[in-house]
Design goal:
Elements lengths: L1 H41 L1 H4 L8 H14 L9 E8 L2 E2 L5 E2 L1 E9 L1 E7 L2 E7 L2 E8 L3
Antiparallel strand pairs: 1-4, 2-3, 4-7, 5-6
């Protein structure tokens, strides 16, 4: 009787560890994707004027590619990209009012978690935004 109880406890612990591993990996991949989205939103090369700002389609494709690296399948309609550029101005007194670049990236997806014939999903909506002053060349 004692061995049956020990086997049941061991099985319960294994199921708990397996489920925790799957849920934990979903959250870790979401965190890593959000970190990559933040890096894409910053786009330091655009802020210093060395390269053109990436288009919304390029940013969307980059987010989908980064997600694929973590095993997350995203379709283009699951990724929202908003990009606004306000041009800088030269004032009459000779000073320069710098431009502003606003970029926001959002994804919306469900991550499947499988456990012995049962499937449930965890919903994630990572978002990254960045507002930067554009330095004129």
């Amino acid at each position: 009787m004692k061995s049956v109880v020990l086997v049941l406890i061991a099985e319960g612990l294994l199921v708990f560890v397996f489920l925790g591993w799957q849920i934990g990996s979903c959250y870790l991949h979401n965190y890593e994707l959000n970190d990559d989205m933040t890096a894409l939103a910053v786009q330091s090369r655009a802020r210093v004027g060395t390269e053109a700002v990436a288009t919304e389609d390029e940013l969307r494709t980059s987010v989908i590619s980064k997600a694929k690296d973590y095993g997350i399948e995203l379709r283009p309609e699951q990724v929202a990209v908003h990009e606004t550029m306000i041009a800088g101005e030269f004032a009459q007194d000779g000073t320069v009012k710098p431009g502003v670049l606003d970029i926001s990236l959002e994804a919306d997806y469900d991550a499947p978690v499988k456990l012995i014939g049962t499937l449930f999903t965890i919903h994630f909506a990572p978002m990254a935004a960045h507002r930067a002053t554009v330095i004129l060349k």
